[in-house]
Amino acid sequence: MQPSEKLSRAIALHRLGQLAEAQALYEEILAIEPRHFDALHLLGLIAARTGNPQRAAALLGKAVEIDPGHATVFFNRGNVLCELGQWDAALACYDRTIALQPGHADAHYNRGTVLAKLRRPDAALASLDRAIEINPGFAQAHFNRGNLLQQLEQWDAALASYGRAIEFNPLFAEAYANRGALYNQLDRIDAALASYEQAIAVNAEYAEAYCNRGLLLQEIKEWDAALASCDKAISLQAEYAEAYVNRSFVRLLRADFDNGWIDYEWRWKEKNGPNSADTRRFRQPLWRGQECSAGAAILVFAEQGLGDTLQFCRYVKQLSQLGFRVILEVQPPLAGLLANLEGAAQVLTRGSALPSFDWQCPLLSLPLALKTNLHNVPATQRYLDADPAKLVRWQAALGPGLEPRVGLMWSGSRSNRRDRHRSIGLAELLRHLPVGLQYVSLQKELRESDPQVLRSYPGVMDFSNDQADFGDAAALCDCMDLVISVDTSVAHLSAALGRETWILLPFSADWRWLLDRDDSPWYPTVKLYRQERSGDWSEVLARVSADLRQRFPAAFAAVT
Question: Could you read off the pLDDT of 426-444 as tens digits, one per residue?
Fold first, then answer.
């Protein structure tokens, strides 16, 4: 059989899906003619389809050397290079494809996808726009355009792109789901819920849609429905870490600690969760509450936020009482403050050389290991202490306390996904606070409008430029008669110092504050103020104002 006959036979087999037989014939052709363009190209496609992208890239590379004017081969090679994560090389292939065939919509689309991977969103958007210009009904391009616009915080344009994707493909479940997530981000809860329902109607086995719907149902306090949605996601995808973590939030909120802590362990397997970037692996075993020999060394390492570390470092004392020699690894901003934490034999910062140890345990896994439930939370009134020298310095900076001092913390880190719910505008807060007390800003980082607001309220003392670390923050808190804070690390710091602390919570509060209570099993000195309507702080602040008058009656008697 001549090579041309073999090629015809191989192509026929290829089209019928008989890839092994086709591959054998392509290889016979190449044994005779090593530079046979069609055999190289088609054999490369088989290699790509059968899970051998490295060989596919090599074969297609030889093909384009033979015929550098063949747009389709450049396009196919670009696809294989994408699979290999070789983004720059893939981009060059798509550029060459477009140079040879400017109307190649898929090449423009794939080029946009690669540019997004290379974190060039504006260029990626231009490529997707060109793909849509060529093919207006390109639903996937509209969808990816929506994703890019969402990253660029062009919310309305992103919603419009998701809408166009759905218009051209009414069965596009992912477009409904992503639109739902964006609606949720914009606090358009009813629209978000409807989009998730549409995604599920299109694809009843869409685990991600059930999972995200479960998280949304938590935010509107539909607890039973939220649990059912998470359960459904898990029934469809047994290893779906995000669904277990979302379910853990509902269980922990409801004080179902026995099951909640177990679900929460799935956080280490989330794809994009707060622990997903933590790839540390230790040869030492994970401690889960096993009996250990006295004096065994255990490494307890911080994870997630500073507030989490401040809340859960309380367990170090309990480990020490069990006979462990505790090595505590924390974030650098907390190292000085926690250097003398009771029960810690050694306190290190992340990145320091580790001494030898026998066991290891992440900080937020200790409640599970120690079987914490609602009735045995280790709620010592004060388990942190401010540095005495810093305390003296801050007392001097504050001057004589002629009026009760109230520390204020109104915003947290912008990077927190719930920041828009938990932070309060400074001007709104100050408008509600009664005259007669000495207010002290505990903020280290001010928002753009804060300095101007503070200038309008000269009675508020501001030390944002004078706090070097959490040691200073602790000493400053310890000088207060009362701390009023949103749900951020300073709230935990003040409460861990045993200071009277009022925490202002959004409508859907974090799991650690449980449900429908104004106290906390974690902190005896805390009082919780919860929003009654999502996004409305006015009623919360009115209660705070009234309670301040009751808490410090002498100060207000002097004013009147």
Answer: 999 999 999 999 999 999 9
